[in-house]
Amino acid sequence: MNTKKMIKYVPDSQVIKNVLYLKDADGLDWYESIDSGMWAEDSIKIAYDDNGVIRHVDDDVSKIWPIDLSVVEVAAKDAPAGLNHLGGWLWDGKKISAAVIDNAAENEVKKSGLMAKANLQISIYQNLVNLNLASTLEKEALAAWIIYKANLSAVKASAKKITWPEVPA
After folding, report:
1. Do 21 and 29 form a contact (C-beta atoms < 8 A)?
2. SS3 39
3. pTM, whole model, 2 decimals?
4. In the chain, is it the N or the C terminus that has fewer CB atoms within a 10 Å radius of its CB?
């Protein structure tokens, strides 16, 4: 079974009031497709967007709400291990495959967040040192955060495998 993109519509005869109804380009009503038994019980159903990105996965079609999505079922044996709805899988019209993800941007965001945290900690400890209020432990913490920041600066966000420096205690 395969539906095209499901869109909202108002049926001529609404069986239930205050319910959103969906149909695909061929006029197939979503609820009717579920109630008619069109979907195999032993298959995996996937809902995917216009780019083929899988947005929902379930063996129970009634758990899927495919607004602006298309739905297809595949044999459970053809579903790759780890298949999920988190955006890392694609449907190309014939098979499911892992999406190629550019981690550089994600790594850059992580690095920026860690750098901001390091800057904040360094600022706090540096202020204590500048005011001669820092204990020996706070001076050691300042040194640890400065070293951490230097190690973090050396991280290349575009690297395929990154070993992030350990955050000071």
Report:
1. yes
2. coil
3. 0.60
4. C
